Amino acid sequence: MPDSRQPRRVRLKDVAEQAGxxxxxxxxxxxxxxxxxxETRRKVADVASELGYVANALASGLRTGRTRTIGxxxxxPTEQLDKPYFRQFFAGVLEVGQRHDYDVxxxxxxxxxxxxxxxxxxxxxxVDPLSDDLxxxxxxxxxxxxxxxxxxxxxxxxxxxVAVDHRRAVNELLAAEEERGVSRPLLVAPDEHSxxxxxxREVFEAWAADLGVEPAxxxxxxxxWDDKDGFRQVIRQLLEAHGDADFMLVxxxxxxxxxxxxxxxAMPGREVRFASAGPDVDGVLSETPEVxxxxxxxxxxxxxxxxxxxxxLEAGPAPGRAPGATLVPASxxxxx
Amino acid sequence: MPDSRQPRRVRLKDVAEQAGxxxxxxxxxxxxxxxxxxETRRKVADVASELGYVANALASGLRTGRTRTIGxxxxxPTEQLDKPYFRQFFAGVLEVGQRHDYDVxxxxxxxxxxxxxxxxxxxxxxVDPLSDDLxxxxxxxxxxxxxxxxxxxxxxxxxxxVAVDHRRAVNELLAAEEERGVSRPLLVAPDEHSxxxxxxREVFEAWAADLGVEPAxxxxxxxxWDDKDGFRQVIRQLLEAHGDADFMLVxxxxxxxxxxxxxxxAMPGREVRFASAGPDVDGVLSETPEVxxxxxxxxxxxxxxxxxxxxxLEAGPAPGRAPGATLVPASxxxxx
DNA sequence: GTGAAAGCGCTAACAG
DNA sequence: CTGTTAGCGCTTTCAC
Lengths: 336, 336
Fold this sequence. Notes:
CATH class of the largest domain in chain A: Alpha Beta
Shape of chain A: elongated
Strand order of the largest sheet of chain A: 2-1-3-4-5-11
CATH superfamily of the largest domain in chain A: Response regulator
Radius of gyration of chain A: 26 Å
Structural class of chain A: alpha/beta
Distance between the termini of chain A: 71 Å
Largest interface: A-B, 58 and 59 residues
Number of helices of chain A: 12
CATH topology of the largest domain in chain A: Rossmann fold
Oligomer: homodimer
Largest sheet of chain A: 6 strands, parallel
Number of strands of chain A: 12
Order of helices and strands of chain A: HHHHEHHEEHEEHEHEHEHEEHEE
CATH architecture of the largest domain in chain A: 3-Layer(aba) Sandwich
């Protein structure tokens, strides 16, 4: 039963017959491939548009192995849709996808059950790869081309990486703090499952070493972006352990908020400057211009990932560009 | 060239050989179809999971005409991702899709160029169908099953409809206003391109007729949800034309905001009650408990659309449920 | 109950 | 330059 819900579509064969050529020729003519007279090409094209022919993507995909769809993977995508960062990243992917005529498919991220069917995509973008995300790992081990949107944490298979230039941005922020004088800097960042967290630590420590001061740090769970209570707990410990702390870099504006509240409520009299390595998407720092932050370009990052993936897909079986992350610049709001 | 980027996947043939059966039998065994010994079924299933077999969706899709992907259409989806309503709707679709093992594909909504290839989806959800959306019309005329997420405006082809029960919700809101006394009610709602706008007018007028009062209304562009200036202009005209107005129902909280500001700034002394037929997603009415509004269940609506579409898809070529919209209840915040 | 074979619509070889 | 042919991996008759 040929499925009556999908009534007869115009097939390439129909176009070919109508145009008086063979299917092979018609195929070549429409795809601009091969060695075809301008005249026959025109003829075929005319008939095709007249009949309203659109290629059956399944059939051509079966033959070529391409689907013109890219997949997007993120843990719990449904909830992530509420987060501005993911949403903007997604918008960037969508925009580029549309420009290149690719559909974008949110991959089913069910970690329990294996997919009943392989994803019908040509390649995948993994947003914020975490080393304990099993489905991300699975995708990266699969034969599909994968582009990671953010630095890879250790333990995950290699793949192409497109990331924000955190190094430059954070250093700019730190330089501004340095001018104000820092003698005991603290860092609160995502733990080792996150490539971003690792990078922040590296940059922070290099800067501290340069400055000749002794840093200390605390960990938060990646994705606990707006988990003020979580931040508060970690920050309290850190501040109590280091009574001489005078500056703290935190991975989220909500961390800054938590820290400042803590100081006000529980440690009156102590003076600590704060800065955020993450963007102030919700505007919670809009009234504290003395706090600097990095403005992560989520949309540009998503767009860059998509560009990179599509470029790679269209490049054919070639090995692709040399490894090493593609960097997307971030802007910084300097502290007043 | 069989595309070296997609190295050899395990094929059904491999499973069949390994299990010592034919491909046909293996296919039946895995799909739970046909007349197969429990023993062979087990055998095949074991081999399949051992080899890590996942069906090639393209191939099976080519044969069956199904892809286990549903499409989502909305004008300018990229910008819509920033709107809580669309986002929540999307989340609902995604959630149900995942539960039924369907991927969700955002359809390329480029209105200029026709798709180079037919969408690889089994069916489509059209969010907020508008009569002047050409791609929506195209989809609804295509052989694909379509579910509309909200009432259809006149002029669009028929299709299944899943909508919020605005009638009940708005009546509840109006009843509450009625108790406070209304003698001259005004309505500001989307124009005739929107099925929702049409319904609002119908309900509003029926209520006014019942009450024995004379209503009046103004139009806004659908989608101008947070366009305060647009609202302000329309509301000003309406209020100036109807000096005796004492109540106004507006389609968005931002409209309420605009109206109240206008009153305060330009028409001091006039007393008009406001209510919103749309949800207060951004919380702009949180400090005016005297303003009631309808709380549209975007996520539930998205989920219901997906359920309905998938149900229809799995039901086979049958005509499906009788026409008439499926309704999703909305809750109401009554005015204080 | 199971195997063999046809064919979904298309592209890519290979002839001519 | 263009027609013919052979599959891509799967499901689905139809024999046995």
